[in-house]
Queue: 2 jobs
Job 1
Amino acid sequence: MQSMFTLFAQNSDTKKLFQNAMAAQQSGQFPSAVDQYQSLLKQSPGLISAWVNLGVSLVQLQRFGEAIDSYQTALALSPGNTANQTNLALAYSKKGD
């Protein structure tokens, strides 16, 4: 697993895609953010922050099952991360499980 900074230093396209996905997410364009995070993760599947932000965007779209999958992947990459555990619990709660 590479750190986000190492990855961005090696690949400016990855950095730009992440920034574009974040901008879409922050402006409430969640379908676009989801598409961009998914594209990014095909290139860089170890990027934890992209998995988490994908989960956040999916929750906003009420796609809770997919959000749970994203948070579980983030946790697998960063076991014990309490923020990710909280996000996962909230997604389960919203889904009704």
Note: The chain has a mean pLDDT of 89.
Job 2
Amino acid sequence: MNNAVYKQYMIELREALNKSDPIGLSASGAPNDEYGLERSHISGPLLRCATLDEAWDLIYKVFCDCFDVQTAGAREEYRLLAADLWKLRMNYSNQKTP
């Protein structure tokens, strides 16, 4: 994946995380890069996920690891985010992984 494509992938990933706002950080006025750590932990592995469920597991695990299980909430709360990121992953799947 060339630098321009990877940059666009990361922008779209940030936008999807902010839109979903699973922890409620964006709604509380946090900067738009507040999910930067989570994005960095999701970006590469997401491109290697083989199924939507695998992506969903990855996303939920990252949020549980970066926050805690209680703060992250239930896995089901990440279903729509996982679907959005899976679509993003499919758009970039023909590119070489970073």
Note: The CA atoms of residues 17 and 35 lie 7 Å apart.
